[in-house]
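Class prep. Sample record?

___
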Amino acid sequence: MGSHPRACSRTNGQYDTFYKNKEISCYVQSIKNTDKLLAAIHQYLAESHSKWSMMYFSDHGLGFSGKNNSEELRLMHEDRYKQGFEIPLFITAYNAKERQYITAQRSALNFFSLFSQWSGIGDNRIDNSCTMISNDKCKNQNHVLNFNDKLVDYTKLPIDLPP
């Protein structure tokens, strides 16, 4: 469950640093815990001296609720703002030598294309007209699904300003 809302249930109410309130502090701690887990997996794989590749991503972003009162401030699933669709994603491998940042727009609706290109597993039903692991501008990367299963243009969503 990682950093999903009610993060204190995953950190046993523990956190290293206080930020705004207990729930936000637990949220930050849950991210730190995920980072530690990923580092441990990476170290294990590196020490295995085998060929490996690892992809990490989140399933959704979060937005703020209760911004007017720091005690009531929460992070929750959100589909009205860009942040609800901005997720971390990285790929690394045994032979990775440098970091490459993809800043071009990518939509999770095209995840099968990304997965296919990353894994080398193909199917003629997967659209691979876009090189997903590149900064190429590609068609059909601006749409996201809102909570009503309606396609929304991500570029037209407002930004949720932090408290």
